[in-house]
Each structure stands twice: as structure tokens, then as C-alpha cells.
């Protein structure tokens, strides 16, 4: 799958920051679901592509497989669907989602299929109420644009289909064989969320424990540096803290 973010934003690789910003804002308005003449689903899909391309350019990351940047290949939707199916199967196997929550597009599946490195096996995944740090640590991070979560219940005090600010999105904490990761979501406007996945390798972690009145905070120690505090449900905090402790000390 070859993706050229400059092509998606319709700017040259020599475009200035101001030109990139103007192109980004123009496309956000063009694909605004409330104004887009096509289907709402297509508008969300295009917004996602635009947000991912913008985040990639701003981060300075090279285009994936861009051997011929001036003639990019189209995005293969089959690759995306296959990756989402793989992640969904993984999350069902560990009990994070049920079979009936897999489709239509599950936000957790969509985010992790996009932001996790390909081939990552998820061993622990749970809902996360917040992450705090006692200091600074340079986490590996990957960001992407996603359709904003919308209200679909008819008995909600707002109109069906209204946008929900990203604070309403449930954050995720997870462990693969090699890393501890968690998400942070922000409402990006125009019906889009910006989600960032932060990751720390276990070889940088010296241990973990669980504290709190209800034992609902997993404390993670990174070398001689900061402590990462992950708040979740008590039983899940125990599972997370225990896994991190074993992974950090087994190496």
C-alpha cells in the first residue's frame, strides 16, 4: 500500500507551511459531512485520509513506500479491511470486544488497525480513564485522523448524528509483546477526531504496581525517570500492572 500525503492534500512536496495549512483547511471544508454532496460515509472516509496525510506531513514522517512520490498508487481498501479483521479477531480472543461489537466499524478496531505496527499481537487491552506522568519521556507516537463519534440514540437530548467532543471517546491502554501503549483523543473539528497512540518499550520500564483507594491506578516506572499513572477499573488495573511487571522484569 503506497500513500503519498502530499498528493492527498493536493500540494507539491515543496509547499510551504502556509500552503499546506490552506490546503488542509480547504479539504476539511470540502469534505464536511454536512456540506459534502456525496454520501456521509464517503465524506468520513475522505476526512480520515486528509487528517492522516496532514498528520504525516506535520510529523515529518516519510510517505510509506513512496518509491515514486509523483505517481502514488491508490489506497487499497482490501488491505485496510484485512488489517481491521485481524485486529478485531485479536480483541475478541482476549475478550475486549464481543462478536456483535466487531462490525460495523468499531472505533477501537479502526484506531488500533491504523496506529499499531503491522503484525502486533495484543496481549492485554482495556479501557483507560486517564494517563498522567510525573516527568518527561520521549514516547514513540503515531497519530491518525478518524471520523468523530456521533450520537445515534434518538432519546439523547441532542439531535441524532450530532458530533460528540472527543472527551467522550473511550481511551485505550494495551500491551503487546514488546510495548505498553495508550491512546489520547482530541476533537479536530469538521467531524473528525485526531487520535495519538503513545508507546513505551518494556526494556525501558523497570516495574509496575497498583495503588489507589479502589486499587484502580497502575503505576509504571520508566528507568530513573518519570512515573506513568494509568487509571482504569480496579480488576483491569491489576491485570495491566501484573502484565507490565512480568514483561519488564523477564527481559
Structural class given helices, strands, pairing? Answer: alpha+beta
The ordered H/E elements are HHHHHEEEEEEEEEH
What would you give as the CATH superfamily of the largest domain?
A: Pleckstrin-homology domain (PH domain)/Phosphotyrosine-binding domain (PTB)
Instruction: Look up the CATH topology of the largest domain.
Output: PH-domain like
Low-confidence stretches: 62-78, 150-168
**Alpha-carbon distance between the termini?**
34 Å
The figure for the number of domains is 2
Strand fraction band? 25-35%
Helix content: 25-40%
Q: Write the CATH architecture name of the largest domain.
A: Roll
Mind explaining what this structure looks like?
There is one protein chain. This protein has helices spanning 5-9, 17-30, 40-59, 77-93, 107-115, 234-250; strands at 122-128, 130-133, 140-147, 171-176, 179-189, 192-201, 205-211, 217-222, 227-231. Strand 5 (179-189) and strand 6 (192-201) form a beta hairpin. The longest helix is centred in the N-terminal third of the chain and has 20 residues, at 40-59. Mean pLDDT is 78; it is low at 62-78 and 150-168. Helix 2 packs antiparallel against helix 3 (40-59) and helix 4 (77-93) crosses helix 5. The protein is built from six helices and nine strands.
Amino acid at each position: 500500500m503506497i500513500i503519498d500525503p502530499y498528493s492527498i492534500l493536493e500540494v507539491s512536496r515543496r509547499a510551504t507551511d502556509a500552503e499546506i495549512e490552506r490546503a488542509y483547511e480547504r479539504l476539511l471544508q470540502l469534505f464536511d459531512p454536512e456540506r459534502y454532496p456525496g454520501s456521509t460515509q464517503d465524506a468520513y472516509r475522505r476526512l480520515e485520509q486528509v487528517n492522516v496525510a496532514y498528520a504525516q506531513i506535520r510529523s515529518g514522517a516519510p510517505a510509506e513506500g513512496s518509491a515514486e512520490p509523483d505517481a502514488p498508487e491508490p489506497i487499497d481498501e482490501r488491505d485496510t479491511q484485512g488489517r481491521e479483521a485481524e485486529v478485531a479477531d485479536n480483541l475478541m480472543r482476549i475478550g475486549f470486544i464481543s462478536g456483535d461489537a466487531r462490525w460495523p466499524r468499531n472505533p477501537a478496531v479502526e484506531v488500533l488497525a491504523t496506529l499499531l505496527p503491522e503484525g502486533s499481537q495484543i496481549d492485554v487491552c482495556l479501557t483507560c480513564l486517564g494517563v498522567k506522568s510525573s516527568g518527561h519521556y520521549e514516547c514513540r507516537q503515531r497519530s491518525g485522523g478518524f471520523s468523530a463519534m456521533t450520537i445515534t440514540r434518538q432519546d439523547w437530548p441532542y439531535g441524532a448524528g450530532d458530533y460528540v467532543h472527543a472527551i467522550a471517546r473511550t481511551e485505550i491502554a494495551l500491551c503487546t509483546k514488546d510495548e505498553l501503549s495508550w491512546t489520547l483523543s482530541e476533537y479536530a473539528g469538521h467531524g473528525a477526531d485526531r487520535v495519538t497512540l503513545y508507546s513505551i518499550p518494556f526494556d525501558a520500564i523497570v516495574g509496575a504496581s497498583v495503588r489507589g483507594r479502589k486499587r484502580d491506578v497502575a503505576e509504571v516506572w520508566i528507568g530513573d525517570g518519570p512515573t506513568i499513572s494509568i487509571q482504569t477499573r480496579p480488576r483491569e488495573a491489576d491485570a495491566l500492572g501484573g502484565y507490565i511487571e512480568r514483561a519488564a522484569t523477564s527481559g
